[in-house]
Specification:
134 residues; ECO RV Endonuclease, Chain A; 4-stranded mixed β-sheet; 8 strands
Length: 134
């Protein structure tokens, strides 16, 4: 059975991740920044980069990107395994946005009713003087 964890156990793909993702994430940041600030669409761009990696590694036939709009948490399905992708660019992980709303009542309702629907792929991007750590 194919599992998302396999992506991080293969030494060859780990090397590709270390060599390729920093450049792809840097290009994404250049494309989605204005006046030195990142737009919220950066998350969607990074998500597409990571999904492309999954397609490369697991094969197109094992990666489903046709996710219905009402599947709010699932970003991709790998071999029938629902996965939510979150990316953070801070030196410290201080929080992950799991719902996009400014309505406090909606947030509280989400927290009260939250139940894990899928696996979480959390990518912490930590830019420093010598590059990026992922």
């Amino acid at each position: 059975m194919i599992r998302i964890e396999h992506l991080f156990e293969d030494k060859i793909i780990i090397e590709k991740i270390q060599n390729k993702l920093p450049l792809l994430f840097e290009i994404a940041e250049i494309n989605h920044s204005r006046a030195g600030k990142l737009g919220m669409e950066i998350g969607s761009e990074r998500e597409r980069i990571l999904i492309a990696l999954m397609i490369y590694y697991f094969g197109r036939e094992n990666v489903n990107t046709e996710i219905p709009i009402n599947k709010t948490e699932t970003d991709v399905v790998v071999s029938n395994e629902n996965i939510s992708i979150k990316t953070i660019t801070n030196s410290l992980i201080s929080g992950v946005k799991v719902i996009w709303t400014v309505d406090r009542e909606k947030v509280l309702e989400f927290i009260r009713n939250y139940d894990v629907e899928c696996k979480l792929l959390l990518v912490h991007i930590n830019w420093n003087k010598s590059g990026v750590y992922i």
